Amino acid sequence: MKHVRLDPMETHPDFVGCTIPQEVVLGDFRLTMLTAADLDDDMAAIEESAAALDNIFGDGWPRDLTREKDRIDLERHHREFIVCRAFAWVIRDQGGGYIGCAYLRPAIDQCGVARAAHWMRSAAADRGPAFAALFHDWLRGPDWPRMALNIVSRP
Fold first, then answer.
1. 20 to 30 A Cα–Cα from 153, which one of 57, 66, 113, 129?
2. What pTM was computed for the model?
3. Whether the Cβ atoms of residue 122 and residue 52 lie closer than 8 Å to each other
4. CA pair distance 124, 61, nearest whole angstrom
5. Which domains does the chain show, CATH number per domain?
6. What is d(CA 33, CA 26) in angstroms, rounded to the nearest whole number?
């Protein structure tokens, strides 16, 4: 694996020339690019699921998350997606309801390695395993560069 040093808002070398879908259907789920327009739904899902989400990303998240901090996070996720640095999607059900989030974050210091993560709001936790299988199969498919995936998931 090639080691690189990247600006956090620079296209990751693994994704130069790639077109990453902002929306995709995976079985009964639809992924849509996460943006600040999702703030109300995001806060509601996080608040509903805070106990299950505690420390999912290893930094105490979502403890002490405020509406303003969440808006800033969503704006960052959107910018990263647009420049192909990292990718965050809302997981929606067939009716368009917000049931969680999915992420792909390439390693900042090397090529060919990425962290895939998702979480489901508490009311949809039973759908987590079905989503995970579809999501991970998609990330290993022909639309994506070959990467070693470190997988982190919460219901």
1. 66
2. 0.88
3. yes
4. 20
5. 13-154 (3.40.630.30)
6. 14
